[in-house]
Amino acid sequence: xxxxxxxxxxxxxxxxxxxxxxxxxxxxxxxxxxxxxxxxxxxxxxxxxxxxxxxxxxxxxxxxxxxxxxxxxxxxxxxxxxxxxxxxxxxxxxx
Length: 95
Hints:
The chain is of the alpha+beta class. The chain has one domain: RelE-like (YaeB-like fold, 2-Layer Sandwich). It has helices spanning 7-23, 25-40, and strands spanning 2-5, 50-51, 61-66, 69-76, 79-87.
């Protein structure tokens, strides 16, 4: 299974890490690592995320909860595409 990140998801991860690093650089590094590790597990278990009911095809678009963070991704033809990553308290990231 191939795994790709959208430009937006890469920016999301960088933004989250930068925000956390203001208060705790060590935690920022650890959280980014945890998010990337959880996302990499999708290669073996692409359906561990929950379907996104409002999407046109809920079985293809899914949400992976990683602690307080969420990664929205699309599964299609042996490919996982990470769309966005955000903290659960953030608003306006709904796709």
